[in-house]
Amino acid sequence: MANIQSAKKRIRQNEKRRLHNRRYTSAARTYVNKSRELIDAGDLEAAAEQVRLACKTLDKAARKGVIHPNNASRRKGRLMARLAAAQAA
What we know:
mainly alpha; Methane Monooxygenase Hydroxylase, Chain G, domain 1; elongated
């Protein structure tokens, strides 16, 4: 445990930020997983809407600084490629 006051404050701040960031990462992960499940199930209309929401949440997480913008872009690209492949098939 930290003894210095500034280190104690830093621990409190980090915990608060971790809990705040967890909300955005969890939401993005949920939407991405639901999108993948719908694509695999073959429900392409619902999957397209879910992919749109997943992209929106990934962009929001990147904008908040929770994930790196390139990370969000890579995940969106993979999701869109999967959707496009399912629509082509």
